[in-house]
Design brief:
Shape: globular
CATH class: Alpha Beta
Number of domains: 1
Number of strands: 9
Radius of gyration: 19 Å
Strand content: 5-15%
Number of helices: 12
Distance between the termini: 22 Å
Order of helices and strands: EHEHEHEHHEHEHEHHHEHEH
Pfam families: Bac_luciferase
Protein name: Luciferase-like monooxygenase
CATH topology: TIM Barrel
GO molecular function: oxidoreductase activity, acting on paired donors, with incorporation or reduction of molecular oxygen
Structural class: alpha/beta
Family: To bacterial alkanal monooxygenase alpha and beta chains.
Length: about 350
């Protein structure tokens, strides 16, 4: 039985475009947020690939990772994730091999198999309606390009070969957990928008885990929505921004991130409220410092994850910065029985 210890703390960023703002502002804020959480001691800063969404500016994910890494010094920067079926594995290996060459020891490569967009845009990206069905083979091909080149290997990623960029598998269902376990890779669950199978996926990952050259034991992260503020009352008001965000997604409306409102009454139906609160934000931790501390500790008690990654949706950027500060202050009080962190991660 491992002694409880504080978990690692990390940040997921979608470069949100807020109502009244634009993509240029969103990208500036991404770099500023990364510098802020680096100063606070966060372990990693990941950006996620999404396409054709008016409220998200992280579509050119590798480019944004380079931008953020160039403006930080120590924090690990990576993808949460690259949607691999949208890309040729060789291209991803070249991009992340270049990033790892520019920023040695600081780049993570999180991989997912979802399109990160709607079906029409997915077809424009993938050109093949069967893309994603060979995801395990794509992962193997990509990892091969990042490994040291074999004698006689005719196709190489340059830069890329030999960089051995740490690969994570991401998931919002059981598939990613099973593949990560089979390959002996670290696993991150996307509970910030698909919480339903979090605990089952983690159990499956740990039960089926096969030790590898990368990990001797499982290493799991949960990405969850968090909104911390000075008081429960203030946090509840700020929470109307993510409530509206997911309500709009349910309705097929991809508008920029809306400002908070005094009340959601009249903005959603009872059925929509239930769907937002349960299906999208079932792991939402929201409140003042004491409430957030209790919520995060409850998550750790239920899941034993080694690392928590925050997804923080705030319309007003200073509120986002403050939320990250509050969670950093809480971190020393938290305890998880997860694995001892691996140096390579």
């Amino acid at each position: 039985m491992k002694a409880p210890r504080p978990p690692r703390l990390s940040m997921l960023d979608l470069a949100p475009i807020v109502a009244g703002g634009d993509a240029a502002q969103a990208l500036r804020h991404s770099a500023e947020l990364a510098r802020h959480v680096e100063h606070l001691g966060y372990t990693r800063f990941w950006v996620a690939e999404h396409h054709n969404m008016a409220g998200i500016a992280s579509s050119a994910t590798a480019v944004l990772i380079g931008h953020v890494a160039a403006q930080t010094r120590t924090i690990r920067v990576g993808s949460g994730g690259i949607m691999l079926p949208n890309h040729a594995p060789l291209v991803v290996a070249e991009q992340f091999g270049t990033l790892a060459t520019l920023f040695p020891g600081r780049i993570d490569l999180g991989l997912g198999r979802a399109p990160g967009t709607d079906p029409l845009t997915a077809r424009a990206l993938r050109r093949d309606r069967f893309a994603g069905e060979d995801f395990p083979q794509q992962v193997a091909e990509l990892r091969g390009y990042l490994a040291p080149a074999a004698a006689g290997q005719q196709v190489q990623a340059i830069p890329g070969a030999g960089t051995e960029v740490p690969v994570w598998l991401l998931g919002s269902s059981l598939f990613g957990a099973q593949l990560a376990a089979q390959l002996g890779l670290p696993f991150a669950f996307a509970a910030h928008f698909a919480p339903a199978q979090l605990e089952e996926a983690l159990r499956l990952y740990r039960h089926q885990f096969q030790p590898s050259a990368v990990l001797s034991e499982p290493y799991a992260m949960a990405c969850i929505p968090v909104l911390a503020a000075s008081s429960d009352e203030k946090a509840r008001r700020l929470a109307t921004t993510p409530y509206q965000k997911f309500l709009n997604l349910i309705r097929g409306d991809r508008r920029p991130l809306p400002p908070p409102v005094d009340s959601m009454d009249g903005l959603w139906s009872p059925r929509e409220e239930f769907a937002v609160r349960r299906d999208w934000l079932g792991e939402f931790v929201c409140g003042g410092p004491e409430t957030v501390q209790a919520g995060l500790q409850s998550l750790l008690d239920r899941t034993g994850v080694d690392e928590i990654m925050l997804s923080v949706d705030c319309h007003h950027f200073p509120d986002r910065l403050r939320a990250c500060e509050i969670v950093a202050d809480i971190l020393p009080t938290l305890r998880t029985a997860g694995a001892i962190p691996a140096a390579a991660l």
